Amino acid sequence: MTCRDSPRAPDQLFSSPLSLPGMAQNKYSHLSAAGKDQCSPPLGISTMKLFTGLILCSLVLGVHSQWMSFLGEAYEGAKDMWRAYSDMREANYKGADKYFHARGNYDAAQRGPGGAWAAKVISDARENIQRFTDPLFKGTTSGKGQEDSRADQAANEWGRSGKDPNHFRPAGLPDKY
């Protein structure tokens, strides 16, 4: 069986049937002079396709892994926020809420961009929900709720920015927290 009898390579299927005068009919005819198999394409063409495919796959996987990393950080950051909230409820210590706000945001932000994003979303949602639920359940309609919300948000920002949450730690809070 000769090269002319064998099926065409995929990259030859769509090549132009027109040939210019003086050009070789077989696009791999220059290889026979070097003593290589006339039927196989040169290494460069298949290697180029392989590397192009690998580069595209690595780009897709790289973006995918970044998203997976971000989502993992966000998940862990949400757990940090929940732990701070649970500790705050368990401690039930007057004047310690700003400390727990700062600590939850600090711990979440230390996870990375995903954790900082989760901390911001959770903190903002909590304050927005609290703005509507406090008047309903606690009967507070004075401006004190807004002041407290602003102070909570300041503590949230303090923690997310990487500053020490112990700045808000009240005297007498047990070391457990």
Describe this structure in words.
This protein has helices at residues 29-32, 43-91, 97-109, 113-137, 144-160. The chain contains five helices and no strands. It is mainly alpha-helical and 177 residues long. Residues 10-20 have low confidence and may be disordered.
Keywords:
elongated, mainly alpha, 177 residues
Oligomer: single chain
- The percent range for helix content is 55-70%
- Tell me the Rg in angstroms: 33 Å
SS-based class: mainly alpha
Helix-strand sequence: HHHHH
Tally the beta strands. Answer: 0
The overall average pLDDT, rounded, is: 79
Terminal residue distance: 81 Å
Percent of residues in β-strands: under 5%
Question: In DSSP terms, counting alpha (H) and pi (I) runs of 4 or more, how many helices?
Answer: 5
The geometry reads as: elongated
* Major sheet characteristics: none
Stretches where pLDDT falls below 50 for ≥5 residues?
A: 10-20
What is the element layout, followed by pairings?
Blueprint: H1 29-32, H2 43-91, H3 97-109, H4 113-137, H5 144-160
Helix pairs in contact: 2-3, 2-4, 3-4, 3-5, 4-5
What is the gist of this entry?
The chain has 177 residues and is an all-alpha fold.
